[in-house]
Amino acid sequence: MNEEQKPIRIVVGVEQSPRRRSLRQMLEFECGFQVIGEASSAHEAVQVTRQVSPDVLLLDQALLRDPDVQAAAQLADSLGSVRIVALLKAIEKASIVEALQLGAHGMVMKTSSPQLFLQNVRGVTTARYWFDNDSLGILVEAVREALSNTIRAKPQKDYGLTRRELDIISKIANGRSNREVGEEFSISERTVKHHLTNIFNKVGVSSRLQLALFAVNQHLAGARKISSVHPRV
Predict the structure, then answer these.
(1) Which of 60, 95, 99, 135 has its CA 20 to 30 A from that of 183?
(2) Would you say 45 and 13 are in contact if contact means Cβ atoms under 8 Å apart?
């Protein structure tokens, strides 16, 4: 089995044993997934994850907010490169913002279809953060709301961005892939990646999601209809 065929290794952190069993069965039924650990508490989830080093930790939001792992920085430090997918009761503004603050890289409703559930799990393994359209839309609205007063009070900063870089930011914020951006501007994907590297360095971000939120914050032209941002750089 080569590198591309390796299964996504998962730890399931859910308090209720029937739910853990159901998630394990669903994941293991699909080719490309391997459940290598289970946990019924936040503390146990961190311990198991440290021991087996999975790719993804599926963690109930109730466990994610446990005092043992409440600070996002502490959680990230203790779990290394693992991607955390929060299991939510509902895709709501407060739930999404809280999950991000507590260290989640992605999130999915407990009642989501198996197809969407598996899509989310796969997504966080190829991106720093991954959200479906509904979740990202709600997140962006929350950020707009939180930043609205600050934005009105502050003029747009000069980050030394070129016209082409501003155009690329606008496309990325509207969910375009590197390939799509390249086709639109008649440049190669490699050139798009080079532009994105320069943009990231200029504005001080490290992901496409952060770049989209930066565009909203700065009211950059054409960056207001954000749809879905999946980091691909």
Answers:
(1) 135
(2) yes
Domain count, the chain: 2
Residue 80 has what pLDDT? 63
> Which residue type is seen at 156?
Q
Domain that holds residue 153: 137-218
142 and 72 within one domain = no
DSSP 8-state code for residue 181: H
DSSP string, 100-142: HHTT-SEEEETT--HHHHHHHHHHHHHSSSB--HHHHHHHHHH
173 and 69 housed in the same domain: no
Domain boundary among 126, 150, 173: 126
Closest CA to 198 of 167, 156, 172, 162: 162
C-beta of residue 202 within 8 angstroms of C-beta of residue 122: no
Tell me the CA end-to-end span of the chain in Å, nearest whole number: 26
- pLDDT tens sequence across 3-26: 557 889 999 999 888 888 999 998
* 26 and 113 part of one domain: yes
Do 205 and 144 lie in a common domain?
yes
